[in-house]
């Protein structure tokens, strides 16, 4: 049986590092930080880590706790224009670049993140 992307990329540690780095940047980003309630940055980070881990073949905790991801629906209440999209990708690119990943894994992850970010634009 072949390993999942999650396993090949380093499992929980890699996805924890990615999300931790990303949210450290979000916490000080003037465009993104106001989109999060003061008391929910940690919760948002947990949800993103669970989602990405599950998406890439890791534990199914996200679906067990939250049901189907329904990303567009969950992001619908937020104003997401090209400005927010670009700010999100800037933070995420820095986080992805900070991972110790083989180029093919980094490219696959980045392609997904770019496509997912584009799909969230609603304004």
Please give a structural write-up.
The structure is a single chain. The protein is an all-alpha fold and 123 residues long. The chain has one domain (5-120): Globin-like (Orthogonal Bundle). The protein has 7 helices and no strands. The chain has helices spanning 5-9, 11-26, 41-55, 61-66, 71-75, 82-97, 103-120. α2 (11-26) packs antiparallel against α3 and α2 (11-26) crosses α6 (82-97).
Task: Record keyword descriptors for this entry.
Globin-like, metal ion binding, 66% helix, mainly alpha, single chain, 7 helices, heme binding, GlbO/GLB3-like, 123 residues, globular
Give the SSE layout.
Elements: H1 5-9, H2 11-26, H3 41-55, H4 61-66, H5 71-75, H6 82-97, H7 103-120
- Termini gap: 43 Å
> Helicity range of the residues?
55-70%
CATH homologous superfamily title: Globins
Q: Given this structure, which CATH class is correct?
A: Mainly Alpha
Low-confidence stretches: none
**Quantity of strands, as a count:** 0
Question: What string, H for helix and E for strand, traces the elements in order?
Answer: HHHHHHH
Q: Given the structure, what is the number of helices?
A: 7
Could you say which overall geometry the principal axes of the C-alpha atoms support? Answer: globular
Count of discrete structural domains: 1
Biggest sheet descriptor = none
The residue-averaged pLDDT reads: 96
Structural class: mainly alpha
Organism: Candidatus Nanopelagicus abundans
GO molecular function: heme binding; metal ion binding; oxygen binding; oxygen carrier activity
Family: Belongs to the truncated hemoglobin family. Group II subfamily.
Keywords: Heme, Iron, Metal-binding, Transport
């Amino acid at each position: 049986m072949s390993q999942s992307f999650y396993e090949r990329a380093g499992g929980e540690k890699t996805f924890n590092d990615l999300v931790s780095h990303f949210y450290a940047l979000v916490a000080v980003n003037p465009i993104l930080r106001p989109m999060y309630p003061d008391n929910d940055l940690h919760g948002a980070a947990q949800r993103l880590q669970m989602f990405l881990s599950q998406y890439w073949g890791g534990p199914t905790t996200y679906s067990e706790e939250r049901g189907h991801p329904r990303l567009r629906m969950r992001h619908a209440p937020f104003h997401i224009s090209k400005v927010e999209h670009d700010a999100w990708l800037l933070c995420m690119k820095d986080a992805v670049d900070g991972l110790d990943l083989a180029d093919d894994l980094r490219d696959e992850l980045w392609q997904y993140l770019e496509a997912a970010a584009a799909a969230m634009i609603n304004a």
